[in-house]
Design goal:
The structure is a single chain. The chain has a single domain, classed as 3-Layer(aba) Sandwich (Rossmann fold), CATH 3.40.50.720. The protein is about 35% helix and about 20% strand. The protein has three helices and four strands. Strands 3-2-1-4 form a four-stranded parallel sheet, with helices on both faces. The N and C termini lie far apart (about 45 Å).
Length: about 100
């Protein structure tokens, strides 16, 4: 990656798995990172890890299956600045039978 120093990234589902790996990779490349994730404790752990890399990091707890929750989380994170990068990583699983 190149040209990412000083950019701000917002990652949904950024507290665990692929989202967390992407958040850490962006931080290593010089990005400040904000996370939205349903798991507040995992988000804070990821924020701490990003800060250890010398980057600014923040998190908001939000459930991507609830638009109002996402709006609240984004409003909290964008109060002080905007984002250059958006990574829509979080997913929603709806379980059901394929046979009818």
């Amino acid at each position: 990656m190149y040209g990412l120093a000083g950019k701000r990234a917002l990652i949904t589902g950024g507290a665990q798995g692929i989202g967390r790996a992407v958040a850490l990779a962006l931080a290593r490349e010089g990005c400040d990172v904000a996370l939205i994730d349903v798991d507040a404790a995992a988000s804070q752990a990821a924020v701490a890890e990003i800060r250890l890399l010398g980057r600014v990091a923040a998190a908001a707890a939000a459930d991507v299956s609830d638009p109002a929750s996402v709006r609240t989380g984004i409003n909290a994170l964008t109060a002080s600045a905007s984002f250059d990068i958006l990574i829509n990583n979080a997913g929603i699983a709806r379980l059901g039978s394929l046979a009818r």
